[in-house]
Design goal:
- This protein has helices at 12-26, 64-72, 93-107, 117-120, 186-200, 257-267, and strands spanning 44-49, 59-60, 132-134, 139-140, 154-161, 169-174, 213-219, 222-231, 236-241, 245-246, 270-271.
- With 276 residues, the chain is of the alpha+beta class.
- The protein is globular, with a radius of gyration of 19 Å.
Length: 276
């Protein structure tokens, strides 16, 4: 992790996020627990299942049926989109394949970026552009990997709401730490912590109570969607996630249709709720 952050703040969420950031830097294990973060006094970690069937306080996702109609049944996105074999290039690259494939759908880049306007009409706008715009919150650090001393993991492709009154963030995490059901890795918590610090330390959001983070956590060809935030008023980390989804060495629009719709639906979420 980077050196300890050295600044004073009256924002309780920012203050406890800095303490968690420091605790992560001294962690030796891969997966978090209240015990592994015991240097942060009175810290609680509340986890659960992320479901589109339940009302969410900060993100309203599209249902699988809505995504299926919008993305797949429309015929705009073709089966050959970024079909690439994993080539055994280590922990990081296969995770990037999954991200690039789905990111191209969200951004409207289709059919290996070859689009014939004469045949297909105007290239579609990015689906994600309805509520979100690109942001520059990115980070690469060895905390995101299986072992220290590797720079392959990182946060990237971050977005912020077009409504700048909202402190929400969404992004992608590529990590070398294997995904485990009912366990969260230090990389996944580091994603929430580093983006919370980046957002709430800015002048525009310094008075906000929380900064909700939505991200896909990717390792090789597996990923899960996580929604999390830190509340300094209650000293609590909130984390909910989908099950770990396995997309295999190729993205298959038939076999992976349900899981693909689930991931895309979350990334097309409407940011909702007050963060002040």
């Amino acid at each position: 992790m980077p050196p300890p952050l050295q600044f004073e703040t009256s924002n309780p969420t920012l203050a406890i996020s800095i303490k968690i950031h420091e605790a992560l830097g001294s962690m030796t294990g891969k997966y978090i627990s209240e015990e592994s973060l015991s240097t942060v006094p009175n810290l609680r970690i509340l986890t659960g299942a992320l479901s589109t069937d339940r009302e969410q306080p900060f993100f309203q996702p599209l249902s699988n049926d809505e995504v299926d109609t919008l993305v797949i049944k429309s015929g705009v996105y073709r089966d050959e989109l970024y079909q690439r074999e994993d080539e055994g290039r280590g922990l990081y690259d296969p995770a990037m394949f999954r991200v690039y494939e789905i990111e191209n759908i969200l951004a409207g880049r289709v059919s290996k970026n070859r689009w014939d306007p004469a045949e297909n009409g105007p290239e579609p706008e990015g689906l994600i552009d309805k509520y979100w715009e690109e942001d520059d919150l990115e980070m690469h650090d060895d905390i995101f990997n299986d072992t220290k001393g590797s720079a392959r993991g990182g946060l990237f492709n971050s977005y912020k709401p077009k409504n700048h009154a909202m402190a929400h963030v969404q992004a992608w995490l590529a990590s070398g730490i294997p995904l485990r059901e009912e366990k969260y890795s230090r990389a996944e918590l580091a994603t929430i912590v580093t983006m919370t610090i980046a957002r709430l330390s800015s002048e525009q959001y310094k008075s906000h109570r929380v900064s909700p983070i939505l991200f896909s956590s990717c390792t090789k060809h597996k990923l899960r969607v996580i929604v999390g935030y830190i509340d300094g008023q209650t000293n609590t980390i909130f984390m909910k996630s989908t099950p770990v989804l396995d997309f295999g060495p190729k993205l298959d629009f038939v076999k992976d249709r349900t899981n693909l719709c689930l991931v895309i639906g979350w990334h097309l979420s409407e940011p909702i709720g007050s963060t002040v």
